[in-house]
Design brief:
about 325 residues; mainly alpha; 3 domains; globular
Length: about 325
């Protein structure tokens, strides 16, 4: 078995870390399943929240409004009380969780808070046509919780909710999903997220939050730029912006050895180039088929080669 593993490593099929892990498994040594367990626990929290929502919807009439509100509010308050009791207070640096349940209880509390706000608006229509302000309020509360309790998953939830509020607000003004107003707001939003992460890192405040800002911000920026490549008049400007942002994402990937940012640059860049080429070409159907066959094969080959290069450099 050891010789087979050596041969696989020597031929480049397995990298050193994979070979080491397989040797430990073959030798019946203990190995970490930390991230697998975290994924299962996060999935369990989401499943629990979804199940509670379905249960409430099914037995809504028999349970009663006040009982539901009280149960959700008590559950939310209990989660935050637990985190306040167990947490060590705010710190600008990274702080480890005091116990295994801490992060998951915080996530559950935030989800229950969002459920409570949504139920209040659905039942009593407190804000009526301004209901989108609930999204803004939730996003700000999630941001506060993420920074105070030092939780990157809640930070992702906060930034996503903030983006949802911006999208809903724009659509209520009469813009379509990828209409000009929403596209411009998406560009500003993505740039602000990236800038906020960079400023925090420069100030030495929550440096470990930077990847969350960059992953979301870069995706929003690239998606908005891709959506504008096919627009009339401003298409070339959006295409140029896509190339610039994609190039910056690839440079960051090379500097930090993060394959995800290279993947963003390549995939969004391919979509943008394809849209630009199709809009400015007069090919027949055979030409389109040939283009997709050749470029898709080149894209897959390039991604595999880049991934191997990144793994070999680790």
């Amino acid at each position: 078995m050891q010789e087979a593993l050596n041969d696989l490593e020597g031929s480049g099929i397995l990298n050193p870390s994979q070979t080491k892990l397989l040797r430990r498994i073959y030798g019946r040594e203990l190995f970490s399943v930390h991230w697998e367990l975290r994924l299962l626990l996060y999935a369990g929290i989401l499943t629990l929240t979804t199940g509670l929502g379905l249960l409430i919807a099914k037995y809504f009439a028999s349970i009663g409004h006040l009982a539901l509100l009280s149960a959700i509010a008590l559950g939310c308050a209990g989660c935050f009380a637990y985190c306040l009791r167990r947490g060590g207070g705010f710190s600008p640096e990274r702080r480890p969780a005091p116990d295994a349940a801490y992060d998951y209880v915080l996530l559950l509390g935030c989800l229950l808070l969002g459920t409570l706000q949504g139920y209040l608006e659905l039942r009593y229509q407190l804000l009526a046509q301004y209901w989108n302000l609930w999204l803004l309020g939730s996003a700000l509360l999630y941001l506060l919780a993420a920074h105070y309790f030092d939780n990157r998953l809640v930070l992702s939830l906060a930034l996503s909710t903030l983006g949802a509020w911006l999208g809903v607000k724009t659509s209520l003004l009469g813009a379509g999903f990828w209409d000009t107003a929403l596209r411009e707001n998406a560009l500003v939003f993505g740039a602000l997220i990236v800038a906020a992460g960079a400023i925090q890192t420069r100030l030495g405040w929550k440096r470990h939050f930077l990847p969350v800002h960059l992953h979301l911000g870069v995706n929003v920026l690239l998606a908005a730029l891709v959506s504008g490549v096919g627009s009339r008049g401003a298409g070339p400007a959006f295409f140029a912006g896509l190339l610039v942002v994609g190039f910056c994402s690839a440079l960051y990937a090379q500097r930090t050895r993060s394959f995800a940012f290279l993947l963003y640059a390549v995939l969004y860049g391919y979509l943008g180039v394809t849209i630009f080429v199709l809009d400015n070409s007069r090919w027949d159907i055979e030409g389109f088929i040939l283009y997709f066959l050749v470029t898709a094969a080149a894209l897959v080959t390039a991604l595999v080669a880049f991934h191997r290069r990144f793994r070999s450099a680790e």
